[in-house]
Amino acid sequence: MNKILLIMVMILPLSLFSVTSDKHGIITKKSSVDVKTTMDRLEMIIKQKGLTLFARINHKENAKNAGGAKLNDAEVIIFGNPKVELRMLTRDPKAGLDLPFKMSAYKAKDGNIYLSYRDPRFYAKIYDLYGCKSKNTMSILLNKLSDKVTLPPKDFKALSSSKKP
Questions:
Q1: Which of 40, 37, 34 is nearest to 112 (CA)?
Q2: What is the pTM of this model?
Q3: Starting from the edge strand earliest in sequence, which strands make up the sheet with 26-31, in order?
Q4: How far is CA 105 from CA 17, 28, 157, in A?
Q5: Among 17, 92, 94, 122, which is most exposed with the fewest C-beta within 10 angstroms?
Q6: Cis peptide before 93 (omega within 30 of 0)
Q7: In this model, does residue 101 exceed pLDDT 60?
């Protein structure tokens, strides 16, 4: 009994900090702010961290301009760190299908705002990345980014102001 309790005490903290993904490696987090604010925050942090911002796509606006179906707010940001991604691409060029990284914020049918992205650790299941540690490094980074940009305004402001010199 004591051994079981000890094991539970050791495992519980790990489970509290784990991020779960669906069967396709997609991690989804509920955002406390609207789509535009979520993505504005993401864009700002990407630039602050010196990452490369490749594109910001507004799906709702594109659908409207194309005369297509009416969509809820939905945006995608494509970004990355070419030096880190190069390590994955040299292991398996097919990884370029998921690189650079993408994060999508959208208003779902339930009215909530979500931020989704594919966990780079999942890449090991679909690409030959044996021994490549970059996927783990980027998984941690994307998790931190997604946690920050989905914070309530008060918490985001406090976090942002505490980072200033």
A1: 34
A2: 0.83
A3: 26-31, 113-118, 101-107, 74-80, 52-58
A4: 22, 9, 20
A5: 17
A6: no
A7: yes
Handedness of CA 8, 11, 17, 23 (dihedral sign): negative
Residue 137's Cβ-count burial label (10 Å; 0-12, 13-18, 19+) is middle
> Comparing 131 with 149, which gets the higher pLDDT?
149
**Which residue, 119, 53, 57, 120, is CA-closest to 85?**
120
Task: Render pLDDT for 135-153 as a digit per residue (tens, 0 to 9).
Answer: 999 999 999 999 999 999 9
- Asked whether the beta carbons of 99 and 117 are under 8 A apart, the reply is no
Of the options 3.40.50.1100, 3.40.50.2000, 3.90.1150.10, 3.30.310.70, the CATH number for the domain spanning 21-147 = 3.30.310.70
85, 87, 88, 91 alpha-carbon torsion, rounded to 10°: 150
